[in-house]
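Q: Glycosyl transferase, please. Structure only.
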Amino acid sequence: MRILVAAHNHPALHPGGTEIFAHDLFRAYKRAGHEALFLGATNQVHREVRPGTSFQGIGDAADEVLLWSGHFDRFYMSQIDLYGVVPDLVELLSDFRPDVVHIHHLLLIGAEFPHIVRRTLPDCRIVMTLHDYYPICHHDGLMVRTSGKELCHAASPDRCHACFKDIPLDRFALRERHLKALLNTVDHFVAPSRFLRQRFVEWELAEDAISVIPNGLPLRPTPAAKSSGAGRPTVFGYFGNLNPWKGATILLEAARQLITEGFEFELRVHGGTPFQSEAFVAEIDRLFSDTAPTVQRRGPYRREDVAELVADVDCTIVPSIWWENAPLVIQEAQAQGRPVIASNIGGMAELVEDEVNGLGISPNDPRALASAMRRIAEEPELQRRLSRNARRPDDIDTTARRYLELIEAIEPERVKAA
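A: Structure for Glycosyl transferase:
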C-alpha cells in the first residue's frame, strides 16, 4: 500500500508526543514493506514561507516533506489559504495517490483535509488517530477551564463561552457542527486510551467508529542502569517540556517542600520552556533557584538519549494537571522497568495503576506529590515491587501491524456502504 502520514509538525522541529509517534509509525509502515510519505504541517514559528510552493524539504529524506501553513484559523481549525495550500494538497494527493491517509492532527493542515482527500481520491481509506481534545475544546485541546485550572468534563456552547467571553456563544455551536461535518469523512478513528475514546463518544462521534490501539515505542537496547547503592539518595526524573499544564510548578513546589523538611533526594528535570510566557519562565527560574542543587535543571534532551536518561533515575514523575491521553514518557519509564508517579486522571490513570506499577496522585497537589516521592524513597520494597510490575509497551512494529489490520478491514465496510 501507499500510505500518507500527516501530522501538525515534524519531530525534528517540534518534538512533541504526537509528532514523535506519527513519525515512528511512518517508519514502521516502511519497515512493513509499504511505500509511505510523511507530511508535517508547519508555520512561521519554525519555517519562513518560500514563494511559489507550500512544500519544503526536511533533512535528506526524499519521503518526508513539510507543508507551510501560515494562514490557519485556529478557532474553526480551518485551512483558509484556498489559493495556495489547498491546490498544493490536491496536487500532492494526485501525484502520490495514497491508498491510505493516516491523519494524526488537524492543526495547520486544516479540518477540511479529510474532505479534500475524499474529493480527490474517492476510494482512499482515511484513518485518524485522536491524540488530544482539539476538536472538542478551543482551549488548546486541554479541556481545562481558562480560569482556575479546573478540569472540564464536557464541552457545550455555554461552558465554552464562559471560558472565552469575547467569542459569541453561537460561534461555539457553529464550530462544533463545522468540525463534526468534516470529520464525518473519516473512515475510522483510533484513540490510544479508553478515556480519550469515551470523551469523543460523549461528543457524539459514532462509538463503533473509534477503536483503541495503545501507542508503541521503537525497539532499542535496554541501557544498563546505575546501581542504587546504599547511601545514595533516591533519584527522581522529569522528562518533557516545562509548561503550566505539565505540572512543572507543582513538581518544583513539592521538591521545595521536601527540601524544607530536610529530606534527601535528587530530582533531575529534563526539558526546556519553549513558547512559554515571560511570567511562567520567571516563576520556573525562581523555583529552580530556590531548590538548587537538589533539583538539577538539565535542559532539553534528544529523543535518542531518553532511554538512557530514564534508566539513570529510580522513578519518573508525570505531574500533568490536564487529561493527558497517553504520555510517551510513561511508556519510556515502564519500558525501562521504572515506577512512575503520575496524576490519576485521563489516560495516565490507565497506564499507571496505583500501588501496582506506580503511584497515582491527585493533580495540582504539591503535598500529595511530595508524599508519594517520600514513599518511593523510604520504602525500598515498594519501589522494587512497582518496578517488577512495570507494564512494558508494545513495540512500534506491533502497533503498526494493529493499524494495518484495522485499515484492511475498512474496505469491505466502504464497499458495503456504497
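A: Brief note, in case it's useful. The mean pLDDT is 94.
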